[in-house]
TrEMBL record:
Gene3D superfamilies: P-loop containing nucleotide triphosphate hydrolases. This is adenylate kinase. NCBIfam families: adk (TIGR01351). One of its GO terms (cellular component) is mitochondrion. Monomer. Belongs to the adenylate kinase family. It catalyses: AMP + ATP = 2 ADP. The lineage of its organism: Eukaryota, Viridiplantae, Streptophyta, Embryophyta, Tracheophyta. The keyword Oxidoreductase does not apply. It is an enzyme of class 2 (transferase). It comes from the Eukaryota. One of its GO terms (molecular function) is ATP binding. Keywords: Kinase, Nucleotide-binding, Transferase. InterPro entries: Adenyl_kin_sub (IPR006259), Adenylat/UMP-CMP_kin (IPR000850), Adenylat_kinase_CS (IPR033690), P-loop_NTPase (IPR027417).
Length: 282
């Protein structure tokens, strides 16, 4: 119980600084929280569950492929964007200011996001879950440095898709307000041009029971998506270099829709003969 109230105080203190730049001591505190939320690992990466990261521009499909791989490999899929949206829907006193940052396509502070992630990892630890697939974290070099300071990342998958497809995918994204399922009403068909092959991505339509409950994310408007892409290039592109220089980055060009991309991804990860591949793809 004492641990629990310490955590709440820590979170409240950090949420107060959500819209300011984190100081070194704020970050030091957040990084210690992250470290204690992770299991002690003496295995040197051998024999433990995977610790992977998905990088890529908004709309590329990190959530889709991270969720499928997490089912396949039996590790939690942790999307920091989902953690932020949960925080917003809790409608705490600071939600309006957090919503303003998110809805303008900006990043929230490293300290806040690390606090939200620590809380999620603590839950995982309590449930006995090990390993993870992170989606949307790290998004700044500072976040990557802090993560590196507290645990080993085995692999970073950098998903890539042409920009016109990214924008269309964000604008077509719909979420079921009840089951939180992710769908897409866009039919993307980009002609072959300049040596690039034709790209066809059919819509991913919801089942009938979700049709009347679909909502659009407030940050999926054209203006905000363009700003999120700009912020990605400025703040998150350097994270690709961070992992590239450590030999951990796997570049992955999505060839099109889910069926062909999923099979190609499994081959790239040497998972195509994994016993549960068929179930995860269903
Ligand atoms: P996403 O669902 O990944 O597109 O994230 C939605 C929004 O949550 C982002 O546009 C940011 O405002 C915020 N967010 C998610 N992850 C991070 C992160 N690692 N660092 C800072 N802000 C984040």
């Amino acid at each position: 119980m004492a641990v629990f109230s310490r955590l709440i105080c820590r979170r409240a203190a950090s949420l107060r600084s959500f819209c300011t730049k984190s100081t070194d001591s704020d970050l030091h505190r957040a990084s210690s929280a992250l470290s204690s939320a992770l299991p002690v690992d003496n295995s040197n990466g051998k024999g433990r569950n995977v610790q992977w990261v998905f990088l890529g521009c908004p709309g590329v499909g990190k959530g889709t492929y991270a969720a499928r791989l997490s089912t396949l490999l039996g590790v939690p899929h942790i999307a920091t964007g989902d953690l932020v949206r949960q925080e917003l829907s809790s409608r705490g006193p600071l939600s309006p200011q957090l919503a303003e940052i998110v809805n303008q396509g900006q990043l929230i502070s490293d300290e806040i996001i690390i606090d939200l992630l620590s809380k999620r990892l603590e839950n995982a630890l309590v449930k006995g879950e090990t390993g993870f697939i992170l989606d949307g974290f790290p998004r700044t070099v500072r976040q990557a440095e802090i993560l590196e300071g507290v645990t080993d990342i085995d692999l970073v998958i950098n998903l890539k898709l042409r920009e016109e497809a990214l924008i269309a995918k964000c604008l077509g994204r719909r979420i079921c307000s009840e089951c939180q399922g992710n769908y897409n009403v866009a039919c993307i068909d980009i002609k072959a041009e300049d040596g690039n092959p034709r790209m066809y991505m059919p819509p991913l339509l919801p089942p009938p029971q979700c049709e009347s409950k679909l909502i659009t994310r407030a940050d999926d408007t054209e203006l905000v998506v363009k700003e999120r892409l700009r912020v990605y290039n400025e703040m998150s592109r350097p994270v690709e270099d961070f992992y590239r220089s450590r030999g951990k980055l796997m570049e992955f060009d999505l060839p099109g829709g889910i069926p062909e991309s999923w099979q190609k991804l499994l081959r790239a990860l040497n998972l195509d003969d994994h016993e549960d591949t068929r179930t995860a793809a269903a």
